[in-house]
Amino acid sequence: MQIKDSVFAITGGAQGLGRAMAMRFARQGGHVALIDLNPERLQATVAECEALGVQARAYVCNISEEAQVEQTFAQIKSDFGQLNGLINNAGLMRDGMLIKVKDGQLLDKMSYEQFTSVINVNLVGSFLCGREAAAIMATQGKGGVIINISSVSRAGNMGQSNYSASKAAVATMVVTWARELARHGIRVAGIAPGVIATDMTAQMKPEAIERMKQAIPAGRLGDQDELAHSAQYIIENDYFTGRIIEMDGGLRV
Ligand SMILES: NC(=O)c1ccc[n+]([C@@H]2O[C@H](COP(=O)([O-])OP(=O)(O)OC[C@H]3O[C@@H](n4cnc5c(N)ncnc54)[C@H](O)[C@@H]3O)[C@@H](O)[C@H]2O)c1
């Protein structure tokens, strides 16, 4: 699929990796429908994309709410007249240990709310957006591409019962959807980033960043546009489906 003149919905498109993908697609002439909770940041990114000469629109939507997602995708179809790609990128982290015990006493446990809030955005939100996007693409009859953003944490990570489970789940949905949707010409793939430099990492202590770099064979954090480049590769390579790109500088063991 070529990016130029195609329409891409990007969840979490207001900032971070979602913004980086929107900007890269816009630089190649792709139109972008940006979905996020944050209206101010959405507008700023929409303006940056429009300045590159493409169509860009903001959709304020909580991706874990079914009715909002259905309404948003219907609006995208009506605004752009077509949808060719979806990047399931919006996600959040609420880390914590399953239980905390000291001297034989239970001090704390991960709450039901802490677990389900992450599952509801990262997994349920990806399911809802994937379903709506697939329904549009399959019925417009021109195929399409869906990319789920997973994580190196999908293999299991200390303090991330909720996040790791959600990221493993979106990775398995890549394989399931690739098999189900191939008959409609829709490819589905994933990207599992390691640690990418973002506003969040910029606020970390230099010592913590240094420790992180030492664990990464590439010797540095990933760049946001390198992640966006992987998304571009998936979109443009018509034989790539049902698989995950590990964009982690060799971090995964
Ligand atoms: N940055 C990294 O190093 C890294 C590593 C591995 C995986 N990831 C994954 O990449 C994705 C993007 O990460 P990022 O670093 O850009 O994160 P970020 O926090 O900078 O951006 C996430 C965006 O998602 C939006 N969002 C959150 N909940 C939402 C909801 N319910 N509905 C709509 N939008 C919502 C936020 O408003 C925000 O704009 C996430 O799925 C994250 O888990 C990031």
TrEMBL record:
Organism: Balneatrix alpica
InterPro entries: KR_dom (IPR057326), NAD(P)-bd_dom_sf (IPR036291), Sc_DH/Rdtase_CS (IPR020904), SDR_fam (IPR002347)
Pfam name, any one: adh_short
Domain of life the protein comes from: Bacteria
Keywords recorded for this protein, A-Z: Oxidoreductase
Entry protein name: SDR family oxidoreductase
Family: Belongs to the short-chain dehydrogenases/reductases (SDR) family.
Domain called Ketoreductase: residue spans: 6-194
